[in-house]
Amino acid sequence: MRFALDMPNFAEFANPATIVALAEDAEAAGWDGFFIWDHINPFGEMPVPMADPWVLLAAVAQATERIKLGTAVTPVPRRRPWVLARQTATLDCLSGGRLMLGVGLGEPGETEFTAFGEEADIRVRAQKLDEGLAILAGLWTGEPFEFEGRHYHVARTRFLPTPIQRPRIPVWVAGKWPNDGPLRRAAAWDGYFPIKPGPDFGEEVPMTADEIREIRSRLEQLRDGRPADIVVAEEVMDPSPRDAGRLRAFAAAGVTWYMEGLGTRYLSFEAIIERVRQGPPRL
């Protein structure tokens, strides 16, 4: 099981220098991955500093050498897939093939879709996600590609350069567990990022090892035994030591990536820096 950090792209973390310093500390401390939220305006009219995650990740790529990096997660339905294809291929090249792409439908619908004239209907977003992923995969090949869907049209074209990673940049699909649709979508790609949402925005209910075993079993069935990543992210709510027994149970159940979410809702900024510098759990 690999260990990563899951960082917001707003408030204190909207400062690129802050994110770069945290990423450098994370790599030096032995973390395996550094991931950034992809939000544009989740709080509506509440003025909160926000930064573009792709600009932040480009700076992180330049400042690090080993650590994996990416978004957790990018709402493909509110991005032009051909623009996203350019961004991701460029970042994969810049980082030397270290990009991991987390994708999902996007939330909250009202402030990040409707407020900007984008369609927030969940079914439409699901359709756009599937079409967007097909376009990404097609353009990443560097071969002639065209697409005609319900929502997107791509005339015959060829995108170069291609990403460094082959056969493509790894794609993790996020979705609300235990909904079957996101799990089936994830089975067609490279990993599943299960989310159990809580009552408030950004809050999640913890996953259990039994649920992870059920997810692994379903993925193995859908993928005919081919392996896939299972990614679990949990927000750190206090600076107490990690529950090593629980993490070992996750690893045994099939989790391949465990992310610690660090934000100032529960921790001081000083505590976050210290948590990063402590390095990943030792199991």
Mean pLDDT, to the nearest integer, reads: 96
Q: What gap, in angstroms, lies between the N and C termini?
A: 10 Å
Measured as a percent range, the helix fraction is 25-40%
Largest sheet: 8 strands, parallel, barrel
CATH superfamily: Luciferase-like domain
Number-wise, the strands total: 10
CATH topology (fold) name: TIM Barrel
Secondary-structure topology with pairs:
Layout: E1 2-7, H1 16-29, E2 33-36, H2 53-63, E3 68-75, H3 81-95, E4 99-104, H4 109-112, H5 122-140, E5 145-148, E6 153-157, E7 171-176, H6 180-187, E8 191-195, H7 209-222, E9 229-235, H8 244-253, E10 257-261, H9 269-278
Parallel strand pairs: 1-2, 1-10, 2-3, 3-4, 4-7, 7-8, 8-9, 9-10
Antiparallel strand pairs: 5-6
Helix pairs in contact: 1-2, 1-9, 2-3, 3-5, 6-7, 7-8
Descriptors:
single chain; 283 residues; alpha/beta; TIM Barrel; eight-stranded parallel barrel; 9 helices
